[in-house]
Amino acid sequence: MILLWGLIRDRPIAAVRDRLLRIGAPVRFLDQRRVLDMTVRLDTGAGNRVLVGDEELDLDQVRALYLRPHDSTRLPALRGQPRSSVQRTHATAVDLTLNAWADRTPAYVLNRPRAAASNGSKPFQLRAVAAAGFRVPRTLVSTDPDRVAAFVAEHRDVIVKSVSGVRSRVRRVVAADAARFAAVATCPTLFQCRVPGVDVRVHVVGASVFAAEVDSAADDYRYARVQGHPDPKLTGIEVPDEVARRCVALCAALDLPVAGIDLRRTPDGEWYCFEVNPSPGFTYYESSTGAPIATAIAGLLAAAALC
């Protein structure tokens, strides 16, 4: 059995489910919207299982798992509930228990929750990036306003973003930001030398590599409109073999069979890597380039389910 866990409206989950159903794979979908109806029982005499209302799912029958769970406490049914409420406590327990099972099950998992932890620290992840052979920008993580000011004065063209896995908008540091440097004292913040060039998003699925070149003048093309730029134009490309090998090796080192890697190709042909997304929303790139990313993920899951 192949198990998918997440929200059906989540486009990557829906795309993979569609590809699996097309080939007649044995698929079960664990709908996170029903978290309040779920009871997870692990290591009992009856085995590992999930009860969803009157339905029972035998987790020991799962041979492959693709998960993209969200924080259940943020679902519409739980909004406005106090943190100490029975409902929020139950939802949190279900999330934690299923994540723990996903980390230790012998099934083939895309991706194990523990592997996604590498994205929780950009500096930690950048060490793995450099070890894979990619260039990384000069980086400062600091809570010292004076060090931040000195870094910006030295390098001039600098960007700022979150140091953790929390999504943030990448943007350039401008002169007016100097008045806000004191704020870093309360929150470690990441500053990097801006690297000129063209963004390339690479999706790795097993040993397969799918690359998209991004044409955008925005500091963060994901928010191009907010930053006053047209929507980015994405074009499917082939990256050099050595770059592809580095991407696959990097994902293997991070134990991420599926990942999205943010690269930038400089005008002189150097390749920089900024970060690795352990749960990429690949459908945005797939719909623009035609790259068969969902099909490749479904293929990994289907092959594992046959073992």
| Helicity level | 25-40%
Tell me how many strands there are: 16
Proportion of residues in extended strands: 25-35%
Distance between the termini: 11 Å
Shape: globular
Largest sheet report? 5 strands, antiparallel
Number of helices: 8
Strand order of the largest sheet: 14-13-12-15-16
Unreliable runs: none
**Would you tell me the structural class of the helices and strands?**
alpha+beta
Q: Please tell me how large the radius of gyration is.
A: 21 Å
| SSE ordering | EHEEEEEHEHHEHEEEEEEHEEHH
- If you average the pLDDT, what whole number results? 94
Descriptive report:
This protein is of the alpha+beta class and 307 residues long. It has eight helices and 16 strands. The chain has helices at 11-22, 86-104, 113-116, 122-131, 145-155, 241-253, 283-289, 293-306; strands spanning 2-6, 27-31, 38-44, 47-52, 55-58, 64-67, 108-110, 139-142, 158-161, 171-172, 189-193, 198-205, 208-215, 233-237, 258-265, 271-277. It has a five-stranded antiparallel beta sheet, with helices on both faces. It has a four-stranded parallel beta sheet with strand order 2-1-6-7. The longest helix has 19 residues, at 86-104.
